[in-house]
Amino acid sequence: MVGSEVAALAATFDPIPLDVLTAEAEALTLKVHGPLVTYSRKVFIPLTKLCRDVCHYCTFAHTPRTVASAYLTKDEVIEIARAGEAAGCREALFTLGDQPEARYAVARDALAALGHATTLSYLQEVAAAVLAETGLLPHLNPGLMGDADYAVLRPVAASMGLMLETTADRLSEKGGPHFGSPDKAPAHRLAAIEAAGEARVPFTTGLLIGIGETRAERIAALIAIRDLHRRYGHIQEVIIQNFRAKPGTKMVDHPEPSLDEHVWTIAVARLILDPAMTIQAPPNLHQPEELGILLRAGVNDWGGVSPVTPDHVNPESPWPHLDALTEATAKAGRLLRERLAVAPVFARDPERWLDPTLATIVRRQVDARGLPIVDQWHAGTGDSIPAITDGGATKRTSQLDDVIARARAGERLSIPDIVSLFEADGHDAGIVADAADDVRRAAVGDDVTYVVNRNINYTNICLYKCSFCAFSKGSTRAERGPAYRLDLDEVGRRAAEAVERGATEVCLQGGIHPAYDGHTYLDVLRAVREAAPSIHIHAFSPLEVTHGATTLSLPLEDYLGQLRRAGLSTLPGTAAEILDDEIRAIICPDKVSASEWLEVMRTAHRVGLRSTATIMFGHVDGYVNWARHLLAIRDLQEDTGGFTEFVPLPFVHMEAPMWRKGQARAGPSFREALLMHSVARLVLHPLISNIQASWVKLGHDGAVAALRAGANDLGGTLMDESITRAAGGRNGQLCDPAQMAQLAAQAGGVARQRTTLYRSVAPGSVAPAGA
Fold it and tell me: Which contacts (CB < 8 Å, 24+ apart) does range 287-290 have?
């Protein structure tokens, strides 16, 4: 069967002109992977250069008399790793010969002195040390392994690898490049790659071309890799490496494959392999001007590039400087981005692919794409904001222009459209932000609005167990700080004090206390209305409304009517989190579902209550989930018109239970946080005019950046902010009107105080209660 497929594919590809083949491969690459080209910033650790194999093109393997010692010591390994860490590396690439103890007594003696019987046992010890003592993630290339080996090494390695090189048995025969190399037998290597799949190890493999194989034999090897990946899904990248003739080897005079031959093989690999698979070509084995040609053939990863150590496998070919690699990538209309030792698709699903300790390490480093957050900005921390734009136009820019044009026209975008906006990076991210700013200007002008308000969180005791919440205490017992419940007199006192301090709104929310029922929320409203008759009461999330209605056995519409008559003016759009039950099942399984949240809002709008809408993002969610959320809000707004604003709330991770347990990312990257405001502006246009930037989450500089990227509102002065503070936020509890004016001016706008319903109000005046 495989033979017939090989013959059919060979007959298909051979007649196709190379430029046509590469054009098809490039189109497929861009469709699935977009313009990003990844690389890993690594340090190369050659644990041993002894090997029982004698591949006739290899200069990595040495004999005992040509090495100073059989193995690096643990101290030497850690020294190399720390040098890499100091240079900004994230990966420790362990490369070593295959089972040298099976060939050399000196290797056996050295291992015995180190307290080990095998090279793999020693590798486990030093990889564990690197993992424990540095911030580097080990990637292991130790040769053939079986089930037991993977079980031992998986807890200390983010990924592993083994080049298949070829499936042609004849290359292991006498006179062939693999003669005398038992570990290069294709059947053994395929078995090792399959065992990695069974062990759920993110795995790197690939072909070495130009060592005497035919094109048909390359196709056979690619089919073998494809089929293993279809069975296990574990191959994180496929390297198409070109043979280089090296002095001192038996193949020094063997012809190297031409650039066209390398390009043909890359393009064919892209067309044979599953489209989502990553294809890598080593950039140091080509001239800089050839790199763009490789990208057009289907490459979307440059592999590991070290600023510290040489390529010990190809020492005659130094790594390109990262600036040069960035430039060459940009010239091809692509954008270079750093990745971890584990590929992005695996980093997005670490529970499945990594040991629990490694899963936590990886999860805390990455954004929703599975790429490391290199700028180290996090919501709520007060960190300096990074630039999000760099480089020039990419091969994705024209597609984004089309999506943006349809958003400007008010069309409902599709989920893939919205995901493409969230994926925008570099120059493209700037295009999305600028377009959102243009739409904002046309929709609401240059006014930057804010409301003078006070938060009253009347209890932090809650029956629910939302894993992202650091505010809730869960019971009357003190857990992460004191539990409290304000009495009605205190709630009223704080409302009256808010009016005295110039507030036009109080925002009332709290946990679901076990003693609360529907009467409680009515009593809270009456207490506030009695103490502060003029104040606008913005209160009760859909969870609180649902709890109140359920405890009184009332339909939502009836209970919302009671709340309105008792003084409720508008509803906050909290408890939305992500309106996608796939995510809610993880972060708040006992909370209202997405459809229940939407139904509360639909009913509230029907009884004449308007509300806000929010999204809390950057934890276990992804761009598809964000897109679903935005479309759910848009669709409801199209039906009811009841939302006054949309409020992106970046996840603040520091004290969140699920982050502390290693179950969540450390919030969105700044690029993602900024794009949420921009994309929301575009997706919700023209149905929702107001996009709010949370200065509490973004910090003052971040809020200014959001105002330049589609947002037009800064929310409330707050007076008392406790929910973000409980999560570890450090951006302050008050942003007074003078500070609001300063932020607006920095963004090129003019501050304007508003009511909750976006009516103008003169600073210091009292707005009507329902305004």
Answer: 288/320, 288/324, 288/328, 289/328, 290/259
**Nearest alpha-carbon partner for 378 in 732, 618, 703, 577:** 618
Q: Tell me which residue has tokens 């995510």.
A: 583
Residue 205 predicted with pLDDT over 50? yes
Query: Which residue(s) pair with 410 in the sheet?
Result: none
Section 133-150 average pLDDT: 97
Q: How many CB atoms neighbour CB 228 within 10 A?
A: 20
Close Cβ partners of 310 (under 8 Å, ≥ 6 residues apart): 44, 318, 319
pTM score, whole prediction:
0.94
Whether 475 has a pLDDT exceeding 50, the answer reads: no
pLDDT at 762: 76
Distance separating alpha carbons of residues 575 and 539, to the nearest angstrom: 12
| Beta carbons within 8 Å of 225's beta carbon, 6+ residues apart | 164, 193, 205, 206, 235, 238, 273
Can you tell me the mean pLDDT for 183-199?
97
Look up residue 433 and give its amino acid. A
Name the strand (E) or helix (H) holding 501: none
pLDDT for 723 beyond 90: no
Q: In degrees to the nearest 10, what's the CA dihedral of 148, 345, 259, 208?
A: 10
Strand partners, 160: 140, 203
Output b/e per residue, 519-551; b: 16+ Cβ within 10 A: ebbbebbebbbebbeebbbbbbbbbbbbbbbeb
Mode of pairing for the β-strands spanning 453-457 and 750-753 = unpaired
Q: Measure the CA–CA gap between 342 and 283, rounded to whole angstroms.
A: 19
Beta strands in 247-286 (DSSP E): 279-280
Q: What is the pairing mode between strands 159-161 and 505-509? A: unpaired
Least confident span in 138-142, 351-355, 375-379? 375-379
pLDDT band of residue 1 (cuts 50, 70, 90) is low
Which band of pLDDT confidence, cut at 50, 70 and 90, is reported for residue 769?
Answer: low
Instruction: Give percent of the chain with pLDDT exceeding 70.
Output: 95
First-to-last C-alpha distance (Å) of the chain: 74
Cβ–Cβ under 8 Å, residues 158 and 203: no
Q: Give me Rg for the CA atoms of the chain.
A: 30
Which residues are bridge partners to 749 per DSSP?
Answer: none
Convert 16-77 into a string of H (helix), E (strand) and C (coil).
CCHHHHHHHHHHHHHHHHCCEEEEEEEEEEEEECECCCCCCCCCCCECHHHCCCCCCCHHHH
d(CA 373, CA 661): 20
**765: three-class secondary structure by DSSP:** coil
Given pLDDT bands bounded at 50, 70 and 90, which one contains residue 112? Answer: very high
What's the whole-number average pLDDT of the chain? 93
Sequence-ordered list of residues with C-beta below 8 angstroms from that of 516, at least 6 positions apart, any chain: 459, 547, 548, 551
Cα–chain center distance at 681: 22
Residue at token pair 């760099």:
390
Angle, alpha carbons 707-708-709 (nearest 5°)? 90
Q: What is the pLDDT of residues 212-246, one digit of tens each?
A: 999 999 999 999 999 999 999 999 999 999 999 99
The edge-to-edge listing of strands for the beta sheet with 713-716 is 713-716, 447-451, 750-753
